[in-house]
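In the laboratory, one determines a bound structure by crystallizing the protein with its ligand and collecting diffraction data. In a computational setting the workflow is compressed into a single prediction: the sequence and the ligand go in, and a structural description comes out. We illustrate the idea with guanosine-5'-diphosphate.
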Amino acid sequence: MESKTPRDRSINPKLKNLRRNITFDVDQLYTGILNGDIVHLSKAITLIESTNPKHKKSARLLIDKCLPHAGDSIRIGITGTPGVGKSTFIESYGSFLIEQGTKIAVLTIDPSSQISKGSILGDKTRMDKLSIAEMAFIRPSPAGDSLGGVARKTRETIILCEAAGFKRILIETVGVGQSETAVHSMVDIFLLLLLPGGGDELQGIKRGIMEMADIVLVNKADDDRIKLAKQTKRDYKNAMHLLPPKENNWIVKVLTSSGLHGAGINELEAEVQDFHAHTKANDSFAKNRAQQSSYWLEESINQQLLETFTAKEGMEELLNKLRADVTENKISPFHAAEKLIQKFLN
Ligand code: GDP
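The predicted complex, in structure-token form:
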């Protein structure tokens, strides 16, 4: 079976070439996905991750075919600084969901995988239990040249997983960089994990990320940290009142949890279901997804325009030259952009 472990992300050039030359049968993949076949699902994700131009058309076709069968899930984003206990928590929460009879997919967006070509997340053996559970599907972060590219692949992977019958999609991001915004714009509900003690500044949590959270979990609330965790929970509850109210009228919940011992998982799941019921009832669930699709349409236009732009002969050179001029204040960024676009259109 393909891609059951993060080690699969190894950059073996031979494997890469092999992958580039794999042939894909779209109809076969489509049928396999609808039957919930993990092997076909994995292969389909490899297809959408492929950089081979020949694969792009098949990928588009497959996603369009799967789209009418997608959507019936709760997409949950999970963030927090490295070490806060995300993977341990996902292992615990995921196992709980499976026990309830829910099929779960765990996807990851890791910005380091495109910068260093190696993943912060991928190097650890993570989620041992889930990685062998039949009702779980784990896929590490796709590699890509840009966060936009990585995010697109993850969004398309969500569609494939939903078409394959996964009812909960857990999307994890490392709490560094821009990836939280990307994840936030593809999920229904956003969880932020924090540690007991220490203000958000101490924990390196930016206000913007606090504002995105629908549920805050003070994690590692176990052993001698229980009292501190309860205090931290109260502090954050108070701090949450100072943030602007949510458009969907959801009041952010602050809970304590211990991914390690499975404490607080029941309560969390109750809140997730409450959130789902609340946003379904006031129609903000559908509205949010519609807004996200519209956002990704614009993002895709920007990205595809930029790709077409830089691919045109001579554009890259002119861009580099003008970039140097802009940084030396020889020309304004606006004027430089105008020049570039003029050249592109001619
Ligand atoms: P991640 O980097 O956010 O994914 O964090 P990990 O799940 O890899 O956990 C980082 C470290 O914290 C590991 O040594 C875990 O064993 C430990 N850890 C994770 N969750 C808990 C928890 O709920 N309680 C305690 N005491 N330790 C935890």
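The pocket of guanosine-5'-diphosphate is lined by residues 80, 82-88, 219-220, 222, 258-260 (CB under 6 Å). Keep in mind that any predicted model is a hypothesis to be tested, not a measurement.
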